[in-house]
Design a protein that fits this description.
444 residues; alpha/beta; nine-stranded mixed sheet; two-stranded antiparallel sheet; 17 helices; elongated
């Protein structure tokens, strides 16, 4: 006879001490149990232990009787629960609990499939309703797994593990790939990072350099949503960056035979399978659908969006509220998938502030982007505004500033980078780094 894992888990609880009952209950969930009997016994054990009593057979039977939930043969079935537990089950309680979650997940997936099939067989099937069934199922599974793992001791152990990794030089999150930024920014799995800039600052070029760092240098899997440029143009600029070929030479058919040979060699690199570019108009739900679809078949390390304000709002409203809802939705996506997101943001071309470094107040007209983000950075190129030298007389030709203006768990400051927009390069620069100071504040 096949083992009933849910009854076995209840038998495990009945065989445990009061301390272990409370501990193991934190890893189980009421939704796991699918019959009237198992649901009733689980509810009884939870309520009894919450009242700081031992959930034994007598107390459970009395609880069910008082709640008028004592069904036929329940007393007999309860008396058999502990006989289902083997010695190996007692030695490996986490295995029983994990199997409960697995079987619950399979059951939930069957329900999703049934609902989708029902919709597809209806007279007027809707792809949006099918998608909603999938999204709802994924949300249920994600939320339940999060609750299952909600153990403070485990969280402390994870903090200590990450501490040891950092101490030994192992990155605890996503390294953006620039040495000079590493001391400021390492993205964890619940981070939303905003990179803002006025027009012509090279935001997309920065994102392309970022993709080069992550995919070709670190072997990461990246989803890139290009809401302003076609996939072809993004790929062309990425090739230009990797091979150091002016993208206009590729665009206008002026590459040498050697350049074409290098492009064909690069084309055959299997690393391209780790880049997923989606172009065109998108709503948040379109972005969510693509992320969930890819996440179901492979590990995704980061989501990049170019750029946030180009996402189509779900309903017409003031621009402030539209962008706020979009930003909130992106944050929820990150929290549910545990995949960090880097979103570019367009700042208004403020004539009165042209040439001045952007700062957090420049985001005020763009909804609640700042509140949802763990990190807010800006790109600034003084050269674009005619400032060819800085206050110390240093050349600012082909120099860009990466300004970290908000960093929830790290430092803020200004890092200079070498820029070449013809090849979409934002590279480390070795000149002494600037620091965040009152001089920076005075430019606001």
């Amino acid at each position: 006879m096949q083992k009933n894992i849910f009854k076995t888990s209840l038998g495990l609880l009945l065989s445990a001490s009061k301390k272990d009952q409370k501990l193991w209950l934190t890893s189980l969930d009421a939704n796991y149990f699918d019959t009237k009997f198992t649901k009733a016994v689980y509810d009884a054990i939870v309520d009894i232990t919450n009242n700081d009593e031992v959930a034994d057979i007598l107390n459970i039977v009395q609880w069910l009787r008082d709640k008028e939930r004592l069904g036929d043969n329940f007393v007999y079935e309860i008396s058999l629960l502990t006989t289902l537990v083997t010695l190996s089950d007692m030695l490996n309680p986490s295995g029983i609990i994990n199997e409960c979650y697995y079987q619950y997940s399979v059951r939930a997936c069957h329900v999703i499939i049934q609902n989708c099939n029902k919709e597809l067989m209806s007279q007027n099937p809707s792809s949006q309703r099918v998608l909603k069934h999938f999204e709802h199922g994924i949300e249920i599974l994600s939320d339940t797994q999060k609750e299952k793992n909600d153990n403070n001791v485990d969280s402390i152990n994870l903090v200590l593990k990450k501490h040891d990794q950092a101490k030994n030089g192992i990155s605890i999150g996503l390294d953006l790939g620039w040495k000079n930024l590493k001391k400021y920014i390492v993205l964890e799995d619940d981070d939303v990072m905003i990179v803002g800039g006025r027009p012509a600052m090279g935001k997309t070029a920065w994102a392309i350099s970022l993709m080069r760092n992550l995919i070709f240098n670190q072997n990461k899997n990246v989803i890139f949503f290009s809401l302003e440029m076609s996939k072809e143009r993004i790929i062309r600029r990425l090739i230009s960056l990797i091979l150091d070929i002016d993208s206009n030479l590729i665009k206008f058919g002026e590459c040498s035979d050697l350049d074409i040979k290098r492009i064909n060699e690069l084309k055959n690199d299997p690393i391209w399978n780790q880049l997923h570019v989606f172009d065109g108009s998108h709503k948040v739900k379109d972005i969510q659908a693509e992320v969930f679809r890819l996440r179901s078949v492979k590990k995704i390390d980061v989501i990049i969006i170019d750029y946030l304000q180009k996402i189509i709002p779900e309903k017409s409203d003031s621009r402030y509220h539209e962008v706020t809802r979009i930003s909130n939705s992106i944050k929820r996506l990150v929290m549910s998938t545990r995949i960090p997101c880097i979103a570019l943001a367009q700042l208004n071309r403020d004539v009165g502030r042209s040439g001045k470094r952007p700062s957090l107040p420049d985001l005020k007209e763009s909804g609640e982007i700042e509140q949802d983000a763990s990190i807010v950075s800006f790109l600034h190129r003084p050269e674009y505004y005619g400032d060819e030298t800085d206050a110390d007389g240093n050349s600012m030709i082909n120099i860009g500033e990466f300004i970290t203006a908000k960093n929830r768990d790290g430092e803020i400051g200004i890092t200079e980078m070498k820029v070449n927009l013809a090849t979409s390069q934002w590279n480390d620069y070795n000149r002494e780094l600037s620091t965040y100071s009152s001089d920076y504040d005075n430019n606001f």
